Amino acid sequence: MSDVVLADAQFTLERVLRPFDNFENVYQGQEAGVPIAFPGVVDADAGTPGFSPYLLAGLEVPLGAKVQIWFPVVSYGGLGTVEPPEIFPYTYGIHWRMRNVADFRRRRKPYHISKQTGGAPDPTGTPVGYSPQRLLLPSALESILYQQPEPSGAPAVSNLRATTINVPGDGILTSATGAGRPFLPPGTPPPPGGGPPFGQFEQGVADPNFSDQATLSMFRTYFTIAKGDELIITASRTDQMILGTWDFSGIDQGFSNLYGTNVGGPPHRAFPDMGIYVWTGSNPS
Q1: Which domain holds residue 265?
Q2: Whole-angstrom Cα distance, residue 271 to residue 253?
Q3: Closest Cα to residue 102, out of 117, 81, 124?
């Protein structure tokens, strides 16, 4: 009888993706369909020969590895101005990008593109003083296969569609009144403001003084497979009923509150551990 080997789940420590600092100053008043990128800064090689000066940075991931992503719920009215707070479902796109052998030679980056020269040039989109030559770095958006109804006397057809992820609030209300939080047993110290003590599901991510979601389970999980060497996530507000422009002092205050400095007030320092959490690894399933 052969020995049975059980493989334990092995995952990295968390990596937190956030927009660039003070992103609100750049996006305020722009169309809300213009995506905010995570991390949104330029690649370390941007502007060097073979690379666009506008190339986005990506998060390195092992191709084929399992990827767990936690998206935070963004609410407006989390300072007690709206009860219960309204939940705006921001749309997140998951972008996968391949690197090439030149990246490995230069920076020891993981790569799965063998070509390191001769990519299509960009002579019209290159600023003065930069080379228009480009290395090949293809990118793909997370996709899903939609199978059509069973055909009669014809080949079956399935449509491969790009897919994005909306993150609504699922009806969770506000921790200020205890909704969504359990009572604690007798003998538990009462809260400073009086009243019954409620249990907290999380702590240390955001300041409860600025977010009614800070003590609830404020993340939603997504599990997928790494389909590239790098991961970039984008967020936009694409609901046609409330599209308009980015307004971090109004409809998008909750977005600024969690990912930035709450420019709508009262302002606070950015929460360093508030963002999109990413883990990569493997498990036996």
Answers
A1: 10-285
A2: 15
A3: 117
Question: Which is it for the CA torsion 30, 32, 34, 40, positive or negative?
Answer: positive
- The 10s digit of each residue's pLDDT in 131-145 is 999 999 999 999 999
SS3 258: helix
**Domain contains 271:** yes
Q: What would the mean pLDDT of 211-222 be, rounded to a whole number? A: 86
Q: Is 253 exposed, middle or buried (0-12, 13-18, 19+ CB in 10 A)?
A: buried
- How far, in Å, CA of 56 to CA of 79, rounded? 34
pTM summary value: 0.89
Length of the chain: 285
Region 97-111: what's the mean pLDDT? 88
CA dihedral 44, 45, 47, 48 (to 10 degrees): 150
Place of tokens 């956030």: 18
- The two counts, helices (H) then strands (E), for the chain are 3, 15
Q: How many domains does the chain have?
A: 1
Q: Specify if 74 maps to a domain.
A: yes
**Is residue 1, in this structure, part of any structural domain at all?**
no
Q: Residue 68 falls within a domain, yes or no?
A: yes
3-state secondary structure of 36: strand
CA distances from 129 to 49, 96, 173 (A): 11, 29, 54
Residue 62 has what DSSP assignment? -
pLDDT in tens, 41-68: 999 999 999 999 999 999 999 999 999 9
Q: Contact, 216 vs 78, CB < 8 A?
A: no
Instruction: Please report, for residues 12, 215, 255, the alpha-carbon distance to residue 251 in angstroms, rounded to integers and kept in the order given.
Output: 35, 23, 9
